[in-house]
Design a protein that fits this description.
alpha/beta, seven-stranded mixed sheet, three-stranded antiparallel sheet, 12 helices, globular
Length: 374
């Protein structure tokens, strides 16, 4: 079986380092806060060239706390891309604000700049820029819009650890950013984990207080917050993995380059476009095919796992039926039945990569009279 994701293999490759890190935390009883969390926060801030990093319990909390730190008027409109995981949007409504879905770019799948301009109203306060699948958004264009309309930009970096926009790492460009360290991410913990990054000291302080019961000093609660803290064991694991992330990222990019070269001559496949200004870290390698489910079954029958990200666009979910955007003429609403994620990650061998490519080619060769992608 060619696995879509193989965290066990990744663990085996760094087992000694991971085991030692976990043992150190347990021996020092540094479970909540303390040196391992502080160490990782500083290391990660340095890695993405941000002034501040605040570890939190998970990526969804990171987005929600980032929104809360901005102290927006209740009922503010927040722009969210229609093609993303629900965490990008549920954080908005759970903070008492209104989600406004915006289309995605049909080539890179990140948020559409053109559609944003059509959606802005006097109540719009924030754009959530999801660097989807590891591809950064067009941050210059977003910042121009934000400046013109006095909007905040929250970067959702859950899928883009190490991605770069014109040489700048995501998570250091907008007003505030959210990261997830869910185990399957490019930089993943061994449980839930997340972080908030920003170059704004006040937003960093506010976020840290929100995540720690509204306090900095113990028992000195300045307001009601919540309990959302990155624990010491996960922080220590992330510190180990962070050292390997550049190498793992290079492997992902090399695999993606192979896909882009080897599958380029199949007209029934729409390959993802990587903009010249982007360092795309390929959390996912997503192709678009009309017969997505049939191809996925064919791959599975040949021992190759694949994934779908995402099978239902956010406006078409029952949770957002009230927005009445399910029937809008959005690329995201039309593409959700055609997206297929091929295996990618440092776990893949060259032999496995060749098997994936050859199997995809065989599928379309056997259907050589099938029409070009619509």
């Amino acid at each position: 079986m060619v696995k879509f994701l193989d965290l066990a293999a990744q663990y085996q490759s760094i087992k000694q380092e991971i085991d030692s890190a976990i043992r150190d935390v347990i021996e020092k009883s540094a479970f909540i806060g303390g040196e391992y969390v502080s160490k990782f926060e500083q290391e990660f801030a340095d890695y993405i060239n941000a002034s501040h990093c605040v570890g939190v319990a998970n990526g969804t909390d990171a987005i929600e706390i980032a929104i809360e730190s901005l102290n927006l008027p209740k009922g503010s409109e927040i722009i969210v891309p229609a093609n993303s995981f629900i965490a990008s949007s549920e954080a908005v409504t759970r903070q008492g604000h209104k989600v406004v879905f915006v289309d995605c770019d049909p080539e890179s799948y990140v948020i559409s700049i053109e559609d944003i301009r059509k959606r802005i109203t006097l109540n719009t306060k924030v754009i959530i820029a999801v660097h989807l699948y590891g591809h950064p958004c067009d941050m210059d264009a977003l910042q121009d819009i934000a400046k013109q309309h006095r909007l905040y930009i929250i970067e959702d970096c859950a899928q883009s650890h190490g991605a770069e926009y014109k040489g700048r790492k995501v998570g250091s460009i907008g007003d505030i950013a959210a990261f997830s360290f869910y185990p399957g991410k490019n930089l993943g913990a061994y449980g839930d984990g997340g972080a908030i990054s920003t170059n704004n000291g006040e937003l960093a302080k506010k976020s840290r207080m929100i995540a720690n019961h509204g306090r900095i000093a113990k028992y000195d609660h300045e307001f009601e917050g919540r309990n959302s803290r990155l624990d010491g064991i996960q922080a220590a694991i992330l510190s180990v993995k962070l050292k390997h992330l550049p190498e793992w990222t290079d492997k992902r990019i090399a695999i993606a380059d192979s896909y882009l070269t080897e599958l380029n001559d199949i007209p029934q496949i729409a390959l993802p476009i990587r903009q010249k200004w982007a360092k795309q870290v390929y959390h996912l390698f997503v192709i678009r095919v009309d017969d997505r489910d049939d191809l996925a079954k064919y791959l599975a029958c040949n021992g190759i796992q694949s994934g779908v990200h995402y099978p239902i666009s956010l406006p078409k979910l029952m949770a957002y039926s009230y927005t009445n955007q399910a029937s809008e003429n959005l690329y995201a609403n039309k593409f959700d039945s055609k997206l297929l994620s091929l295996p990618i990650g440092e776990h893949l061998t060259q032999e496995e990569l060749k098997k994936i490519v050859s199997t995809v080619k065989k599928y379309f060769t056997s259907r050589e009279h099938s029409p070009k992608l619509r």
